[in-house]
Amino acid sequence: MYTTVVDPRTLCEHLNDPAWVVIDCRSDLAHPDAGQAAYARGHIPGAFYASLEGVLTGAKTGRNGRHPLPEAEHFARFLRQAGVGEQTQVVAYDGGGDMYAARLWFLARWLGHEATAILDGGYAAWIEAGYPVSTETPAPRSTMAPIGARIRPETTAKAGEIMAALGSSRQLVLDARSPDRFAGQNETIDPVAGHIPGARNRYFKENYDARGRMKPPEQLRAEFAAAGITVPQQVVHQCGSGISACVNLLAMEHAGLRGSQLYPGSWSEWISDPSRPIARQ
Q1: Contact 201, 195 (CB under 8 A)
Q2: Could you say which of 3.40.50.720, 3.40.350.10, 3.10.520.10, 3.40.250.10 is the CATH number of the domain covering 156-270?
Q3: Which of 94, 143, 260, 274 would be a feasible disulfide site paired with 100, CB 3.0-4.6 Å?
Q4: Which member of 12, 25, 239, 246 is catalytic?
């Protein structure tokens, strides 16, 4: 069972394995249709497509962030139609060195499906290896033991819980946004700049090497330790809207630092309530 990353060669060896399901998550925040267009031009054979807005995001209320979690049943239904059962190995991929596959990885684990991994290096690594591509859309699949919609509440943290623990040693908020946005500079996405008071910053791209591969577990573990992150159960991950934060969470799991949480609403939800404090540096 693969629970964090899987290399292209291993996936290619299982391409026709009915116990494996591949999901294309390519997307672009600035161009919402780019992922679907990329999928249509070519994808890993047999891969299903999961759009950011249609599958990986739920209904927006104006107070729950830009990319709230989907309804559990809605996401579980998508997985069931892709043929995901209780014993299925799920592999998600994006362009490589990105954040969208990690979002699906988190959502699957949020529903209790541990056998979920991202393709190391994404689609770029698949192409680089010379493996086959397809333009065919697979038909819905069925499985003998379909996945259910059983939420694991311990995987997420709410704004009120974060507020209650501000300034406490029992909580470490880790912000995955770029350093300039974390510092309250060059904010072009959200209407308010800054960060949650006391948060630390680790840009999600720091978890990948120059080729877009996830860094080795021992290197990640050393980097997190150097940042003072040694007790994963104290860590709450956030970003702008709960997407790139999933990469930091995945990297910690890959490093053997298990048990951290995601704040799904992240900064875009935090600032929707003017009574919540903000910090800038």
Answers
A1: yes
A2: 3.40.250.10
A3: 94
A4: 239
